[in-house]
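This part of the workshop introduces the protein records we will be handling. Each record describes a single protein and holds just a pair of labelled lines. Instead of coordinates, the fold is spelled out as a row of discrete tokens. To make this concrete, we reproduce a full record directly below:
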Amino acid sequence: MKHCMPGLPKRLKTKNILMKKYFLLFAATASVAVFSCNSQPKNESGEAGEATTDSSKVTLADNDAFNDTLNGKMVSIFYLRNNGIEASITNYGGRVVNLFVPDKDDKMVDVVIGPGNYKDMYETKDYFGATIGRYGNRIGKGKFKLDGVEYILPQNNGANTLHGGPDGFHNVVFDPKQLSDSALQLTYLSKDGEMGFPGNLNVKVTYTLTANKEIKIDYEATTDKTTVCNLTNHTYFNLNGGGTINNHLLQVNADEYTPVDSTLIPFGKNEPVKGTPFDFTTATAIGARVDEKNTQLEYGKGYDHNFVIKGTGFRKAAEIKGDQSGILMEVWSEEPGLQFYGGNFMKSQKPMKNNTKDDYRTAFCLETQHYPDSPNVPSFPSTTLKPGAVYKTSTIYRFSK
């Protein structure tokens, strides 16, 4: 360090010594400050930290864009990384904001489409990147019965309740705890009667970037009163980083899907995909049949349907490949269903990252789930959660090239 100071005349030797002492003290203080600004968030505090990525490859959402409060709770953003992939996640709605993975040329691509700041997320009131609850997908006519009691929910999708209602989990602030450089835990107490649902529901969602280039989402919930629970994630993906998704190649491990009425509520039975535009049993471009004359496609304005995943246990539900990037994303889940949504309601009206808009069919969602309207269809897999039981499910999005 002494060689950082220029030479001084002999008569200033004493002053030089003092200056060196002050300089060393300043340098040490500055080093601590620089280290603090570039370190990940503290494990226990839950406070957000700064991104430490190579800015020439990755640009994660900025702290200042998420420095706000909602209902007295602090909104923040958190940074995760592991083995060449990086993510930013906000505790507002438990949302994935960025997810950078390498493409076929080792260029880092942000495969998540959505707003890049809290203000735009809050004002659009949409589901981009969000944790969805208490009930992912639709509940018909905004009501259901449990143990002979009818529960009335707010209707926010025509006559139906969508994704837990207007103030579902996508619009709440979770309590954060950064577990490590690669893992973030979010917790939330959904109180009895919130959005019309019974029971105090304690929810824990853990995001982890694994060494296998995966983002893993673990869900857990308990209740003190019989209720329904169907948690999922609503990240909008584009494996090219932008542009149309119609040339992405999709394969779904499903021989059946769930037809719906004109309000997108299931009729209560599943039908074979064979011979229909819903047959993705082999890799097929999303846009290959999306504009065919088909009543189900007309109802959804394209794909917005539940697929019945074959098998049980933790298994691969789907895989999809970006036609330009060469990025392959696999979806693994233990859930019985997978909602494939093709960006049909994107209308170039909402502000997205990088000064873009939510252009038509520039993103897709693959939401692991129980079936839509299950509380009203006894033949569907049950979403009932009772006191003493633990709701647990995991989803993995795995990336390769």
Notes: Residues 1-55 have pLDDT under 50 and may be disordered. The two ends are 46 Å apart (CA to CA). Helices lie at 13-38, 118-124, 295-300.
